[in-house]
Amino acid sequence: MSEPRMAPYGSWRSPITSDLIVAETIGLSALTFDDDIYYWLELRPKEGGRVVLVQGNTDGKMTSLTPEPFNVRTRVHEYGGGAYAVTKGTVYFSNFLDQRLYRQDHSGSPRPITPQNAFRYADYVIDHSRNLLFCVREDHSGPGEAVNAIVKVKCAGDATGGE
């Protein structure tokens, strides 16, 4: 063991760092249900703060749905908003890196349903009868402040990014 050393108040090095404190802390949020299946967002500090969509069932089985590098977060209004919606096993979510809207059918791979552009999406409501997703869209393509609108996006994919 090393010899204790004197140091001025507040200048000593502690083996306890903020990274060490939060490394094991998993944040849970945005719980929702789809029949007997439930979903939530899980913040994972050990994965660089990535937010993963997790699915659970009544038998206690849990499955991480969004693979790396997907990060289920949105930057609408800078702080975010509802980042996902689910219906009949299909999940719609915003990916933090590109802010595109993605669709993931059951346990399949995510696929983008909006084009790469300056739009951000949040707060989804699914319209089953019209096969549409209504949401808040923030348009950052022009100068100045972003333009906010409530838009509809085709659930199968929408080349316009919503209208």
Beta strands, count: 11
Annotation field: number of helices: 1
Distance between the termini: 67 Å
Low-confidence parts lasting 5 or more residues at pLDDT below 50? none
What is the beta-strand fraction? 35-45%
Give the radius of gyration. 20 Å
**Lateral arrangement of strands in the main beta sheet:** 1-2-3-4
Q: What's the rounded overall pLDDT mean?
A: 90
Please write the string of helix (H) and strand (E) elements. HEEEEEEEEEEE
Note the overall shape: flat
Structural class: mainly beta
The major beta sheet can be summarized as: 4 strands, antiparallel
Summarize the amount of helix as a percent range. Answer: under 10%
Describe this structure in words.
There is one protein chain. The protein has 163 residues and is mostly beta strands. Helices cover 3% and strands 41% of the residues. The protein is built from one helix and eleven strands. The strands form three sheets. It has a four-stranded antiparallel beta sheet with strand order 1-2-3-4, with no helix packed on it. It has a four-stranded antiparallel beta sheet with strand order 5-6-7-8, with no helix packed on it. Strands 9-10-11 form a three-stranded antiparallel beta sheet, with no helix packed on it. A hairpin with a 6-residue loop joins strand 6 and strand 7. It is flat and about 70 Å long. It starts with 17 loop residues before the first helix and ends in a 9-residue tail after the last strand.
